[in-house]
Amino acid sequence: MKRKTWFLTVFISLILLAVSAFVVKQQWTSMTDAAELEKAPNFTLMDLEGKPVSLSALKGKVVILDFWATWCPPCREEIPHFISIYSQYKDEGLEVIGVALDRGGASVVKPFAEDFGINYPILIGNQEVSNDYGGIRGIPTTFVIDRKGYIVEKYVGYRDKEIFESAIRKLL
User: Fold this and answer.
1) Is 75 in the active site?
2) Contact criterion met (CB below 8 Å) for 162 and 81
3) Domain extent for 91
4) What total number of domains does the chain contain?
5) Residues 66 and 2 placed together within one structural domain of the fold
6) Residues 15 and 92 grouped into a single domain
7) Which of 95, 73, 98, 74 minimizes the C-alpha distance to 85?
8) N or C, which terminus of the chain has less Cβ within 10 Å?
9) Quick one: average pLDDT of 76-80?
10) Within 10 Å of residue 166's Cβ, how many Cβ atoms?
11) Which residues contact 156 (CB under 8 A, 6 or more apart)?
């Protein structure tokens, strides 16, 4: 009898502990989510036509900000995702911005963008912007920025189209 009572007491205690931990985690997540969101650093970079484009001009839109390069195979694999996503969601307030990190600049990137049929703005990146975004150490590195200008997701490496769609649908 004592053993059954002891087992029942331990079992109920473990359940209460698990429920308490879940509640505390949910409250902690709610409290820290807003605090942990980082404002996306503003920048002004040149597009492939030599015109300046600033991130701040896109406030009010959901932005996929993709750091990539023409020589990067995983970057090349993601480009069709971004072309499709941009076509599908641009009228709902989505902007896709590609920040090319090629050393050859627009002379290398522009023909590549034309060949690939890229339909979203491509900007020529620099070390300053890479540093502002935490030091881009691997590409592709992609940020999802909400309508208020906060980074809500960061992906390093290739991701399937569904990952990006899932992230932006919550924000559109």
Assistant:
1) yes
2) no
3) 38-169
4) 2
5) no
6) no
7) 95
8) N
9) 97
10) 12
11) 137, 138, 140, 141
Q: Do 111 and 65 sit in the same domain of this protein?
A: yes
| Residues 6 or more apart whose Cβ sits within 8 Å of residue 144 | 62, 63, 64, 65, 151, 152, 153, 154, 164, 167, 168, 171
Chain-centroid distance of CA 41 in Å reads: 13
Cβ–Cβ under 8 Å, residues 45 and 129: yes
Residues 17 and 45 in one domain: no
Structure tokens at 39: 């404002």
Structure token digits, residue 171: 């924000």
The whole-angstrom separation of Cα 90 and Cα 94 is 5
Of the residues 55, 63, 75, 113, only one is catalytic, namely 75
Helix H or strand E segment including 40:
none
Please give the Cα distance from 134 to 44 (Å, whole number). 17
**31 and 6 within one domain:** yes
Q: Does 90 share its domain with 160?
A: yes
Residue 165's closest CA among 141, 149, 136, 142?
142
Confidence (pTM): 0.79
In the predicted model, is pLDDT for residue 17 greater than 90?
no
Give me the sign of the Cα torsion angle 129, 135, 141, 145: negative
